[in-house]
């Protein structure tokens, strides 16, 4: 019996990627597709790469349209999910791809998003300690942000194993799809091709408190986070370069052992062989995470680098993975670790 | 019972794309992988996006290694397939992704490739008139070149329906993976990013006789072909802009009707709605072909534009599609019309 | 004594490129800069690459602001130049970088632009027969479109020498800056990187009548033009692939001789050595035009390929070159044939 | 009286960029051009963007060929400069664009480069404390590496002013031209477009000791450096994200004041207005450095981000700037702070 899924926000990049994955998911039947400003248009005009859905027409995002599904994915602007979720009833699995329910700290939410905190849902990054169990059977899931996915998976094993001092420094490069489909001058192809540029520098990016939350939980105490995101001239992908001072006694061997152990049973996280480094091209369109670690003895730091596809593992793939767990399906159903390269 | 497949030439772009598709093919079990200069290396080092095969080691391309498979794919340099194919026996399905067996005209072969003509095998572009039937049950398949795939699918309906004068003018842009993985200065990222450039101008490209062969067959008489390939700053994709003088009496309606009819039952060729034009991004990683037609009444020409992924429908996807037909499987098994975008 | 120049429309790509060139022009002093929707902003925020002008503030485009200059450049949306030009007086050199005064055929203007025809000014492509003389001392210049620049320079020698039949087929690829700086969804970096796509197919592009006008003038009779523009994943550059049936008796030698003769004294047009083909990267940021010709004897066609920078020779460089001629300065002042590569 | 300049290594990216700048330098006459493996070829074939030099033929790199010039630029592989320099005589200005004479610490040189240390020359980064004076009248100049240029200019003011703890963490993204023109598989366009990847992680990059040397000099004591370079999908540009713990009492105001003071008289370093961040596109082809600073009070760190063109200010522009100083010319002669954008 198929799982019937609706997607609210089907015209954007997150919604499009989700539909790409759901079309390949053997247990899912795609139901209602909504998109407010684009309601009435065909998906063929908005997502021309999704040929099997080309004739589908977007509807308004209303409780009536979203009713009657087993799963409802919300790919809405930040702050709009709570109102929609309330109307869906407790038995529907609601998977929020926005930020509304990611943070436990109401003050952090309000400081970074400027609106009242809506609550906290089980967090859709099953690789984190305890996260998988919280997702099993849950009817509500908060899908992590793309940067927090890349960064948290890179650093949590070091913090969980006590190998890193609680001051993390992170510089991450993201493809432009992370900035969404709303046209803005600085996102024009003419502007981004050939250019690297930072934004949200100095702690201002909204993903900072989410990263802090995850690393602090892994460390069992507060971790301070210096996070600098940069925009890279590519459509997809995140490369996160993460480092912290090594605690006393850390060696290259103990560092690697901690990561081997942390990811030994993970289907999507791949610690690369010692001489190989992650590249975003290798995870293009896949749900895989590539990770590599190094111990810089001269600087006394551990460096961990991860690569993900921001739209797949960083958004829609993480959402499908969480859905699988919540519904009791095999976690890897409909997902792949095979990238599209070159 | 699984189809056991070997891939000779697994380290290049065609071989890598083929493996990406075979990994997702429910009827195929991946057997021997070979690559002469890279024999002994792991696939993880050469094709880091194919995580499930990361530990596989490349072997030498020998008859012994390739023995015992149901299907052998040859992704070898032009001119090397015949010698390998001879040793494989008549009961093995051999699918040549090189040029060796594409041309019926021995003189054209020798003029463009400079070596003796090896023969002619059933042509792996099932959408062409008569091609599908020739592939059914065949033990030998010559996979078309990437440009001939894009161009022939764009123009054969016009020639088959008598709508175009027999002088075709084609300008096509290809992503850099079409030029292969052997490092050459003009293919460096520093050179190709930000640059469009032509090559093989004036009839010199090796795909010209193959296009001529296909269009002449569709027209039932000789078609002259002016073909100019250009290198575009993107990894994948072909956009083929094809035109010819319209024959007397052609109208926009008759033109469109001919294309609707030609592609009505084709699972992979998609004639776009009238106001929409192909884009290579929409077929990234998919086996789909997007086509659109126009009748320029002022210039008296029909213009047909097609977009494919040169590595998928243009090479490895075409190979898998042909394998499915040759083996009696559903033609679409393991293939998708869903692109990875943006 | 410096030439004092104002730029109306300084916030867009054409205006920015013009300022880049004027800053390097030894005879020009940059005066008023205007931009309606951006009036009041600093140029540093809008054109951060023009550091020497970072503190300049954009003004409204009014006759008062534009008064008191020797030259006024109009980089305005199509259809807005005539009203501004009228108010500038007959003694000011007005250089229109828009389309308003390019076409001699009022019906063609009205058909393609949908507004009344404003008139015809001397055409700022001095390499065309007779054009240079018309520019000398002129107080009004219509700068050509970027595609017409690339295409007309590629084909006029063949038409002027009677080497080509009067049916030209042109496919050109342009960088995204040709589409301007106004944010539109299909121009987002996420959409254009990795993608080639056509637009204005079938004769619909506004540059078609301008190309037709130029080639017909060179041929001394009507030339029909099939023109297909495509959007390429790069910020700048046009590669124009142009062909036509060769007239009787054309040889590779006669073709090359005609082009050598046509460009022998041209400072900016460079016929490449016989084994070398144009690449847009080679003319990045320069006013040079690279051209190469071929005679395809099998198809009976001549193929001419040109590469320009759409913003430099295709817009702002052409404007400065025309200004130099109109003012009696050396034509090459402030311009270069040196590209920025790789 | 013109300065006569020879360039050894004119076929590579550094040599090509140097020639681009020298062609625009009013005091320089370009003399001998050499390139060993390419000797005998025309520059037009190797550097097709340098049209004015298209007919020049490369010669062998011999003392005879290099004799008779006022300045000799060495754009040779690391380790080859010393032998050539020895033969040039003490009165010739020799500007080494390789690494041979950058490091004062012979052990660091031998550890990172694996060959005997050749010596230490005045360092061609005039913005560093004391550097300009050492260059004046010097006959030998060691041009800095591209990363050290970007990083040292970003961080030296903080260390010189005592605002940063002596543990710097740097993540930098570079365009592919930084990796040179020798064709290698991982530098193919197919591989780099759409991909971000790190290399030399954990302190292994050869620019690490050079950065350490510069920052330690500014701090007046040892600074440890964690440096991670990444390869970005663009031809040119470096974006360096640099941070360190703030010392006690640092404020956003004191931080900004230190940078304003450090760069107040620098013609090429531009501290951006407070709300604007560097982008590599803005310095494309220019000798400018864009810098911005932030104080992250939550993380207790200062973050400084700089953008340069790795080939211009990072290599050839730095070389010309140093030449100007050494020869007593105006430091900015032949150089620009105007980028080519978009």
From TrEMBL, chains A, B, C, D:
GO molecular function: N-acetyl-gamma-glutamyl-phosphate reductase activity
Domain of life: Bacteria
The reaction(s) this protein catalyses: N-acetyl-L-glutamate 5-semialdehyde + phosphate + NADP(+) = N-acetyl-L-glutamyl 5-phosphate + NADPH + H(+)
SUPFAM superfamilies found in the cross-reference section: Glyceraldehyde-3-phosphate dehydrogenase-like, C-terminal domain, NAD(P)-binding Rossmann-fold domains
Listed InterPro entries: AGPR, AGPR_AS, AGPR_dimerisation_dom, AGPR_type-1, NAD(P)-bd_dom_sf, Semialdehyde_DH_NAD-bd
Coiled coil location: none
Semialdehyde dehydrogenase NAD-binding domain residues: 4-136
Pathway: Amino-acid biosynthesis; L-arginine biosynthesis; N(2)-acetyl-L-ornithine from L-glutamate: step 3/4
Catalytic residues identified in the record: 146
Listed NCBIfam families: argC
Task performed by this protein: Catalyzes the NADPH-dependent reduction of N-acetyl-5-glutamyl phosphate to yield N-acetyl-L-glutamate 5-semialdehyde.
Annotated protein name in UniProt: N-acetyl-gamma-glutamyl-phosphate reductase
Organism: Streptomyces coeruleorubidus
Source lineage: Bacteria, Bacillati, Actinomycetota, Actinomycetes, Kitasatosporales
